[in-house]
């Protein structure tokens, strides 16, 4: 039976992992600066994580949400302590799209309104409302286009104000650091004004922290770099280090009634065991601090490389914008140097999303490979130009 492949695939087959490395079936080691698309937070096959999941599946992997599950309480308490999101309520689900879908649905339930404001190049997932709020016509089907979404430019304060004052907007949804869209960020003034406008207009301010959350930006959530208070925070990716788990945090002023949100698998025992161990490792190994320090090191070296024209993002969610399209460079890094990196809609951008456990030695390996590859990339480009 043929597989339906959503993404163009590289011809590499990782079968195991350890820390910041994955290994193919021949034992070849690959340095993972992509983190399985910002999913691997505490490193591949972290021993504490493996132990926690194994122990839990032996005891009880799943039972319905109709019973008490103390692991959910433990996860919520640990999350509150580490994130500083005091008294927010936690609803657990299974993915980033599902988290945003629930955030948008809750906004609509509570405000009685239906229109959503989202931003250019934003990505919020592939479920119905989440994809409608995503700025990519290739993945928005006619059924989603029925949903009322207005896409504005980042930093368009006047636009947000005009839309919110029309009175029918239930939510403004934003990535504080855009992921797949290319690491663009709004200004502090913009985010803070949007926050104020939402509060003045009975509109939810939803922070999509699916990619930027869980310590990746150097703070627990990327919105915490600003003076804002989101009504709902959507999380996934790094939350389970590869185990499918997502969730939303709901501001204490919002009363979500039983039945508004729900799921069969969300918050199951195994997912909670994974989620708790991720938080414990983030805390024990001071990974938020490491993200900050390693980011500074990454950026310091990037500034010395002439082909890198812009450095975007925060923490270990970085984009290096080159003066050429990086498709060939990415291939070269994978096949010749055995280093995974990420791409973006902006073809000149190389995305760096390593596990938060990355260290200077790994960053040095990347730059050594990059410097070695650059003259070859230049030669290949020149050839291409001559062929035209
Ligand atoms: N929001 C953001 C910012 C994302 O980057 C993604 C995934 N790339 C999603 C939502 C969707 O998450 P998932 O694929 O887990 O549904």
UniProtKB/TrEMBL annotation:
Superkingdom per UniProt: Bacteria
GO molecular function: identical protein binding; pyridoxal phosphate binding; transaminase activity
InterPro entries, alphabetized: Aminotrans_3, Aminotrans_3_PPA_site, Class-III_PLP-dep_AT, PyrdxlP-dep_Trfase, PyrdxlP-dep_Trfase_major, PyrdxlP-dep_Trfase_small
Keywords: Aminotransferase, Pyridoxal phosphate, Transferase
Cofactors that this protein relies on: pyridoxal 5'-phosphate
Cross-referenced PROSITE patterns: AA_TRANSFER_CLASS_3
PANTHER family on file: ACETYLORNITHINE AMINOTRANSFERASE, MITOCHONDRIAL, AMINOTRANSFERASE CLASS III
Similarity-based family: Belongs to the class-III pyridoxal-phosphate-dependent aminotransferase family.
Protein name stated in the entry: Aspartate aminotransferase family protein
């Amino acid at each position: 039976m043929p597989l339906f492949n959503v993404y163009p695939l590289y011809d590499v087959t990782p079968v195991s992992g350890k820390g910041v490395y994955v290994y193919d079936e021949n034992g070849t080691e690959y340095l993972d600066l992509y983190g399985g698309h910002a999913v691997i937070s505490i490193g591949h096959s972290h021993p504490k994580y493996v132990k926690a999941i194994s122990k839990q599946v032996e005891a009880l992997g799943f039972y319905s949400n109709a019973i008490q599950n103390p692991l959910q309480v433990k996860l919520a308490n640990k999350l509150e302590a580490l994130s500083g999101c005091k008294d927010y309520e936690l609803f657990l689900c299974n993915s980033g799209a599902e988290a945003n879908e629930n955030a948008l649905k809750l906004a609509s339930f509570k405000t009685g309104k239906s229109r959503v404001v989202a931003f250019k190049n934003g990505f919020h997932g592939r479920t119905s409302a989440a994809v409608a709020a995503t700025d990519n016509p290739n993945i928005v089907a006619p059924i989603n286009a029925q949903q009322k979404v207005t896409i504005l430019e980042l930093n368009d304060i006047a636009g947000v104000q005009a839309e919110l004052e029309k009175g029918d907007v239930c939510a403004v949804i934003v990535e504080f650091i855009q992921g797949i869209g290319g690491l663009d960020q709004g200004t502090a003034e913009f985010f803070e004004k949007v926050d104020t406008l939402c509060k003045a207009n009975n509109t939810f301010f939803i922070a999509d922290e699916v990619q930027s959350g869980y310590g990746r930006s150097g703070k627990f959530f990327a919105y915490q770099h600003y003076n804002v208070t989101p009504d709902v925070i959507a999380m996934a990716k790094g939350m389970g280090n590869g185990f499918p788990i997502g969730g939303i945090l709901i501001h204490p002023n919002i009363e979500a009634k039983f039945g508004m949100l729900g799921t069969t698998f969300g918050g199951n025992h195994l997912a909670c065991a994974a989620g708790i161990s991720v938080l414990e490792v983030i805390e024990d190994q001071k990974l938020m601090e490491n993200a900050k320090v390693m980011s500074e090191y990454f950026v310091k070296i990037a500034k010395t490389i002439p082909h890198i024209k812009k450095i975007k993002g925060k923490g270990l969610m970085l984009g290096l914008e080159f003066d050429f399209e990086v498709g060939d460079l990415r291939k070269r890094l994978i096949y010749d140097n055995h280093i995974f990196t990420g791409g973006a809609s902006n073809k000149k951008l190389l995305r760096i999303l390593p596990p938060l456990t990355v260290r200077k030695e790994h960053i040095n390996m990347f730059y050594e490979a990059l410097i070695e590859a650059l003259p070859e990339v230049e030669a290949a480009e020149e050839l291409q130009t001559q062929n035209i």
